[in-house]
Amino acid sequence: MMPIGIYLHIPFCVKKCAYCDFVSYAGKEEIITPYFDALSQELAWYVQRHLFDDYRPLTLYVGGGTPSLTTPALVRFIQNTEKVWAFDTLQERTIEVNPGTITDSQLPQLRQAGFNRISIGVQSLHNRELEILGRIHTSQEAVSCFQAAREAGFENINLDLIFGIPTSDLASWQATLEQVICLNPEHLSLYNLTIEKETPFWVLQQQGKLVLPDEETQLAMYQTGITLLTQAGYEHYEISNFARPGCRSQHNQIYWRNEEYLGLGAGATSYIRGCRYTNTPAVEDYIVCATADHAPYPATVVTIEKLDFAATIGETIMMNLRLIEGIDLTAFSRRFGIALEEFHVNTLDKLYDLNLIERYKNHIRLTFRGVLLSNEVFQEFLL
């Protein structure tokens, strides 16, 4: 049986953050129960077509949105479906939570339901920055949430942080990092604030009312994050991710290795047998479509993309290069039956000359300059 990752998308939020362009909706709590019924229907579609006869689920990741907002319904869903994907054999079972929507009593429920990894959306430990982002929690609530997760028995905790927030500076970012290091989480994700089209932040930026730290400051923030975390014993293993030894995100590594995964829920994407399937992002439409009898793909799917050989190679290179160790040339040749140097010789030569990639042992990886210009490097392989 082939390994596969499972992703569940829970699109409900108390309030949509000003920078967020994910599939998420505020004020729709009344359809949480129908939504989980639809998730069960979509999962049943794959079960009835014997997907799990060929695939062995390796990881489960519940993201959003704010999954912790739906804790009772989510726990029931997990209990009712765990036998479908042999829940007890999953190596990693992650749930995202936000400090403003999870109670201390719910954290033990999630742990008892089988989740062994938790990802907390901290973002900042400065209240002014949290207000600007539109978060509904305070810095103290974020710390309390972490401590409560520890007390609930979570031994593998990730904290999400954002740098480059309006009004922030290098000193405030460094203070957040130092406080977080003292908490000693197993994993940290550091994301540069990106302004996505049609978000409230994008509108404000177009109006000249949103000013981010300049590029030099944002670069210094990223470098400071790398320095402080590696000095504290964290392994910088992916462009934005740091882990204690043995605590890398197994689920996200499936994406970075461009391996197969099944996405369930509104707006979720699956990558199975060379095809990418994307569900409708409209939550009401998803609920209606999930009950329809449809083939050869679920009625929830709105786009299908069949990746050819060249496109699959290009995406695999792009995703592998997100890992600090880069592309394993032996594994690449085994997977595709061709050496990377033969398939992309001109592109590789160009990137070598620009000092954006380097050969290290049996890997090709980004240089530090390449990490800073990673989007430009990735584009070379997707053209």
Chain-wise SSE layout:
Elements: E1 2-10, E2 12-13, E3 25-26, H1 32-48, H2 51-54, E4 55-64, H3 71-81, E5 92-97, H4 106-112, E6 117-123, H5 127-133, H6 139-151, E7 157-163, H7 170-183, E8 187-192, H8 200-206, H9 215-231, E9 235-238, E10 241-243, H10 250-256, E11 261-264, E12 269-272, E13 275-279, H11 283-289, E14 301-306, H12 309-320, E15 327-328, H13 329-336, H14 340-343, H15 345-353, E16 357-360, E17 363-366, H16 368-372, H17 374-382
Helix pairs in contact: 1-3, 1-11, 7-9, 12-17
Task: Please explain how this structure is put together.
The chain has 383 residues and is of the alpha/beta class. It has two domains: 2-255, Aldolase class I (TIM Barrel, Alpha-Beta Barrel), CATH 3.20.20; 326-382, no CATH class. It contains 17 helices and 17 strands. It has helices at 32-48, 51-54, 71-81, 106-112, 127-133, 139-151, 170-183, 200-206, 215-231, 250-256, 283-289, 309-320, 329-336, 340-343, 345-353, 368-372, 374-382, and strands spanning 2-10, 12-13, 25-26, 55-64, 92-97, 117-123, 157-163, 187-192, 235-238, 241-243, 261-264, 269-272, 275-279, 301-306, 327-328, 357-360, 363-366. The protein has a nine-stranded mixed beta sheet with strand order 9-10-8-7-6-5-4-1-11, sandwiched between helices. A three-stranded antiparallel beta sheet has the order 12-13-14, with no helix packed on it. Helix 1 packs parallel to helix 3 (71-81). The radius of gyration is 21 Å and the shape is globular.
